[in-house]
Amino acid sequence: MQLVDVSPSDYETILRLNREAVPHVNLISDDVLRHLHRESCYFRIAKSDDAVGGFLLGLPEKAQYESVNYQWFAARFPSFVYIDRIVIAPGVRRQGVGRRLYADLERVTRARAPLLACEVNLRPPNAESMLFHESIGFKEVGQQETEEGAKCVRLMVKSLHHGHQGDSAGHVAGND
């Protein structure tokens, strides 16, 4: 499986995978996807032959993005890369695609920001994603209800500078 930068020719497949992953990710339109692509600092797909096995979209701390979860991190961290969404195709789950995308994201963004940030649904629950993120070193720094209480998310960060993960997560959690 190769990791390659997204191009507009991939949008249809990305939108289909995204639709299939709702409610674990929010539904987005073609226009929103194009905007997020322009704002992104990382947007790659995992491809095997011509099949897309998944994608990961990361945004820098100064992106033009109105997401309440993105804004939560922007209000608390001066420098971060926000994982807006990662979707793995059902047929290739548990085959290391997510780990490869995250390892690549870390490699590409380590020099630009000290933290990765994301949220995982507590309501409706996304236990598989929660276990995955915890297994690769993400720690909770807060929780937030969204969509008028329909969703509750666990806000998480991972330090890209070894040895500082607990300091940054603990410091912010203590200030909420």
Give me the CATH fold name.
Answer: Aminopeptidase
Largest sheet: 7 strands, mixed
Count of spatially separate domains? 1
By CATH, the architecture is named: 3-Layer(aba) Sandwich
What is the rounded distance between the termini? Answer: 41 Å
How would you name the CATH homologous superfamily? Answer: Gcn5-related N-acetyltransferase (GNAT)
Order of helices and strands: EHHEEHEHEHEEH
Largest sheet, order of strands side by side? 1-2-3-4-5-7-6
- Give the helix proportion (percent range): 25-40%
Silhouette: globular
Low-pLDDT runs of 5+ residues are: 163-176
Q: What is the CA-atom radius of gyration, in angstroms? A: 15 Å
Mean pLDDT: 89
Give me the secondary-structure category.
alpha+beta
CATH class: Alpha Beta
Q: Number of helix segments?
A: 6
Strand count: 7
Strand content: 25-35%
Can you tell me about this structure?
With 176 residues, this protein is an alpha+beta fold. The protein has a single domain (2-175), classed as Gcn5-related N-acetyltransferase (GNAT) (Aminopeptidase, 3-Layer(aba) Sandwich), CATH 3.40.630.30. The chain has 6 helices and 7 strands, in the order βααββαβαβαββα. It has helices at 11-21, 30-39, 68-74, 97-109, 127-135, 165-175; strands at residues 2-5, 42-48, 51-60, 81-88, 115-123, 139-146, 151-159. It has a 7-stranded mixed sheet with strand order 1-2-3-4-5-7-6, sandwiched between helices. It starts with a strand and ends with a helix. Mean pLDDT is 89; it is low at 163-176.
